[in-house]
Design a protein that fits this description.
By secondary structure, the chain is mainly β. It is built from 1 helix and 8 strands; from the N terminus they run ββββββββα.
Length: 128
């Protein structure tokens, strides 16, 4: 298990079931153990990695009438789903097995690059 995700921008590739060849894609940004991202279908997620255990916990929010890769659909109000995962480094690189409402989704993460320098933090933006 990887106890610390390096800050940066990541490209994501989802597969369900975990051994499927076809899936979906997304993008994530990691900063100080906070993870924010979205996928091509309009889902957005936010999570936090516990630096002691390495576990990632958060929420994915589906848009109204959105559908997850697992086939689960949101209603007209959208839907929030708790997620938990453990990052691992294997022969394929950085990967996660994510529990989405009882379904296991495999995610491969590829480091795209560092975060832009000089961006203010959320606390700095709130003070201005």
């Amino acid at each position: 298990m990887l106890s610390h995700l390096p800050d940066g921008v990541y490209s994501l590739s989802y597969r369900f079931p975990a051994d499927a060849e076809v899936g979906a894609t997304g993008l994530a940004i990691v900063r100080n153990s906070d993870i924010f991202g979205s996928d091509a279908a309009g889902g957005v997620f936010k999570a936090r990695q516990n630096r002691r255990t390495g576990e990632v916990r958060g929420t994915i929010s589906l848009p109204p009438d959105g559908e997850m890769i697992t086939g689960q659909r949101a209603g007209p109000q959208g839907m929030d789903i708790e997620v938990k995962a453990a990052p691992m480094v294997g022969s394929e690189g950085l990967c996660f097995v994510v529990d989405l409402a009882g379904s296991q989704v495999a995610i491969e993460a590829s480091y795209v690059g560092p975060l832009p320098a000089g961006l203010p933090t959320a606390a700095e933006l709130a003070r201005s």
